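Anyone opening a protein record will find just a pair of labelled lines. A complete record is shown below as an example:
=====
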Amino acid sequence: MDFDNSKPIYLQIVDLFYENILEKRWQENERIPSVREVAMMVEVNPNTAIRAFTHLQEQEVIHNKRGIGYFVSEKGYDKVLDIKRHEFIETTLPDVFKKMGLLNVNIKEVNNSFNQYLNNIDHEKK
């Protein structure tokens, strides 16, 4: 995994978990890779992976069944969706709006681009 120096590695691992859950590669109540497996997959110290797992448990996205492993929580998908939507609205959109203003891009152009993107995704699925 290529890491971004501007964000702690454990949070980048958290983002990887979010992506797997949002893309439904990991379903609710499904067992996920262990701390050791994640550390090996992304080539980090197990302590860094533990920090990611701890963070996800605190958010109630995953839970540990002692002796069995870690699982996506019952409402894990909804929790991740809420977290990422909030992050998008509070962090990403203000930057996008600033760039739109600087570049004189209007919402209609953005809407057209978004619709084209959605059409491309629909064609790829077929």
In short: The chain has a mean pLDDT of 95. The helical segments are 9-22, 35-42, 46-58, 76-103, 107-125. Residues 3 and 95 are 22 Å apart (CA to CA).
